[in-house]
Amino acid sequence: MKIVMAIIKPFKLEEVRDALTAIGVHGMTVTEVKGYGRQKGHTEIYRGAEYAVSFLPKVKIEVAVNSGQVDTVIEAIASAARTGRIGDGKIFVINLEHAVRIRTGDLDADAI
C-alpha cells in the first residue's frame, strides 16, 4: 500500500478529483497549504505598494491506494493538474505500512 501525496494549484482540485473518481479512487484527504518551490513566490501590488508573496496558496491531496494502482493514480493526477506553467506542483509516493478502518476494524487493503 502507498500514500500518493500531491501538491497542486487550488483551481485544479475539482479536475483532479474527477480524474481520480474516474479511475475508481473514491477517498482522499485535502488540505489547504502554503509554500514555494523553484519560483520562490512572486510580487504583487496592493494599494499602490509592491510587496513580495513568499508562500503561495496550494492544495495538498493525499490518497491511500494499493501498490498496483500507484502509476495510474500518478498519471491521473499529473494530467489533470498540469497547466504547463511554473508552479503546477509535485507528486510524492510514501510507503503505507498499516491501515485500519475505525468503524469496522478492517485492516490494510480492506481498509482502503
Kindly summarize this structure in a few lines.
The modification O-UMP-tyrosine is found at residue 51. With 112 residues, the protein is of the alpha+beta class.
Please characterize this protein's 3D structure.
This protein is of the alpha+beta class and 112 residues long. The chain is built from two helices and six strands. Helix 1 packs antiparallel against helix 2. Belongs to the P(II) protein family. Homotrimer. Pfam families: P-II. This is Nitrogen regulatory protein P-II.
What is the β-strand count?
6
Query: Order of strands across the widest beta sheet?
Result: 2-5-1-6
Distance between the termini: 9 Å
- Rg over CA atoms: 17 Å
Helical content band: 10-25%
Q: What is the 3D form? A: elongated
Instruction: Supply the helix-strand structural class.
Output: alpha+beta
**SSE succession:** EHEEEEHE
In CATH, the architecture is 2-Layer Sandwich
CATH class: Alpha Beta
| pLDDT < 50 runs, ≥5 residues | none
Beta content comes to 35-45%
Summarize the main sheet. Answer: 4 strands, antiparallel
Average pLDDT score: 89
Give me the CATH fold name.
Alpha-Beta Plaits
Helices, by number, come to 2
Number of domains: 1
Family: Belongs to the P(II) protein family.
Protein name: Nitrogen regulatory protein P-II
Keywords: Nitrogen fixation, Nucleotide-binding, Phosphoprotein, Transcription, Transcription regulation
Subunit structure: Homotrimer.
